[in-house]
Amino acid sequence: MRDPYQVLGVEKTASEAEIKKAFRRLAKSSHPDRNKDDPKAQDRFAELNSAYEIVGDKEKREKFDRGEIGADGKPRFQGGGFDDFQGFSSRGPRPGPGAQSFRWTNEGGGATDDDILSEILSGFSSRAGFGGRRGAGPRPQQTRTPGEDVNAAVAVTLEQIVLGEKVRAELPTGRTLEVAIPPGTRSGKQIRLRGQGWASQDGGPAGDAMVTVEFIPHPLFKVEGDNLRVDLPVTLDEAVLGAKVRVPTLGGSVTMTVPANSNGGRVMRLKGKGLPTTTGGHGDLLVALRIMLPETVDPELEALMQRWRDSNRYSVRGPEYGA
């Protein structure tokens, strides 16, 4: 495996933040999901993760820099003889600075070189927790560190919520997912996508993606919990005499009866025409009446209102309004 610093494109003096930034940038650009036509993308991505597992971990990075482990994360004395193990080699101990040179012999018919070296390694393994042959108890189970979570946001329309349509979420990892919005989800709520976050540094489970749902403002409807509210313009004669009018809903327009003598601001309720709820039902649509006069002056209406005021004047404001 290549030098992990070269794989990540950073200097050996790079800070933890610089290494992390380089890994995220490369992980996003080289992710297999974004390079489906490149057969080598998976290998490059695996090499990138392996490199980050070494230099992205403080302890492993220090060991690598000291030469105690290789680019594959394995101790140097494994797989290549014992030449690098504490000054010993397969031919005998290697003298250090100021040390007297010597080697193990078998002149007295005692233990062989290999027996003595094996005994040394066995004792070291027992003390260091590598599971030597003597006195080695059960290995403690290694705790794997989960990867970091990522945050993302998706903008959805009220129509998508009512119809149960999936929406596309682009994650910081470079992956794009189709996300189903659970019934009862409201603006600002987070959806957890397990295993869709950053990969773990030591082989543990990947982190999660926390996707925040944001409603796109609708030109007609306002959200009030599970209910929706809409203003419905009605003419003066419809409010006075009553009428059947068409009302828009997120599932298409429906017919509603406006009772005679309805005041402006009166709220009518259409059952089950609101947003989906967690119980499997729907909220209601609240329809607020708004009485609208003609845009142009109508002489006949003015004359009618004049006669009405002169003969049938009535009060609608109490003393609290200063009447």
UniProtKB/TrEMBL annotation:
Residues 3-68 form the J domain. GO terms for cellular component: cytoplasm. Keywords: Chaperone. It comes from Kaistia soli DSM 19436. SUPFAM superfamilies: Chaperone J-domain, HSP40/DnaJ peptide-binding domain. The keyword Chaperone applies. SMART domains: DnaJ. One of its GO terms (molecular function) is unfolded protein binding. One of its GO terms (biological process) is protein refolding. InterPro entries: DnaJ_C, DnaJ_domain, HSP40/DnaJ_pept-bd, J_dom_sf. Pfam families: DnaJ, DnaJ_C. Signal peptide: none annotated. Residues 30-44 have a biased composition (Basic and acidic residues). This is DnaJ-class molecular chaperone with C-terminal Zn finger domain. Residues 24-44, 128-147 are annotated as: Disordered.
